Amino acid sequence: MILRSASSSLASASRQLLPHLQRHVRPSSSSSTVNADEIAFFSRLSSEWWDEQGEFKYLHRMNPPRVRFIVDKLRAAALEEELDGHPSQPTEAGRELAGLRALDIGCGGGLLSESLARLGARTLGIDASPSNVQMAALHLSADPALTSRVAYQHVSAEDLAREQAGQFDVVCAMEVLEHVDEPAQFLKAAGALVKPGGHLFLSTISRTPLAQLLTITLAEHVLREVSVGTHTYSKFVKPSELTSFFRSEVGWLSHAGGEGALLKRKEAEVRGIIYVPWKGVWEVAPEGAPGSTWANYLFWARKPREGEGKGR
């Protein structure tokens, strides 16, 4: 009876979640979730990607803590894997991604792609904006040490998933989810690109009044730190919606405990990432810190290996 009740609650939560994740659907002959207006908007700004005091200065400041979060989760996951009988090759400090294949979805000018490559990963950055891809390639060409480890491609996640499903140890989609038309389809494509046993990292914004105040009212309209129109409040996704989707629709997370259950340490984690203005830096909040995920947050999930089962 308890299991039946939990299953019913989960199904109900899934029905409530899907309309939000799918409500930005537009008729198209392509299955891509790319929004032409969003791509045109960011293409106009492509020349500013590597200006650390320009339009993307907050992404430059956000990149180091995002990378540290990725490294910390991969270290912790490697330890868990070793305890479970799946030992991995030890890595040296600063080369924690050596031997891994990484994908950076929505790579923009290549900020994260280059960081992943410096940590040893063979990295593919993809973007729906050809201008962004050109800018990323141009910046990469100035560093011969990286050119053999990074490649860029003008392609959507959905199209790449049809060609290279299950080929990447690490898949990142940072500050992308809040800009796509069909988040449910996008998340499934991103998940399909991850190898069994691999890792998915997302960074996005929760749909709360605080997030609207900080990212739209203040950042866009009052302080003019980013261009007006950068964000659309209705496209923000709450952490609870994201984790519910990966439980019920993607099947990576345990159903134990039903909706609202704590995430299992080996399966997924949500952490707030907060801008501290008096320091001029972003900081990853302590796990479970009250209110820390009400605006920007990070999400990590591990794709189950074959035989581990889904929705276990």
In short:
The protein is of the alpha/beta class and 312 residues long. It has helices spanning 2-22, 36-44, 57-83, 111-118, 130-140, 157-164, 183-192, 209-222, 239-248; strands at 101-105, 122-127, 150-154, 168-174, 194-205, 268-276, 281-284, 296-302.
For this entry, give a set of tags.
single chain, 312 residues, alpha/beta
Furnish the topology, listing elements before pairings.
Blueprint: H1 2-22, H2 36-44, H3 57-83, E1 101-105, H4 111-118, E2 122-127, H5 130-140, E3 150-154, H6 157-164, E4 168-174, H7 183-192, E5 194-205, H8 209-222, H9 239-248, E6 268-276, E7 281-284, E8 296-302
Parallel strand pairs: 1-2, 1-4, 2-3, 4-5
Antiparallel strand pairs: 5-8, 6-7, 6-8
Q: Count the E strands.
A: 8
Task: Give the oligomeric state.
Answer: single chain
Arrangement of strands in the largest sheet: 3-2-1-4-5-8-6-7
β-strand amount: 15-25%
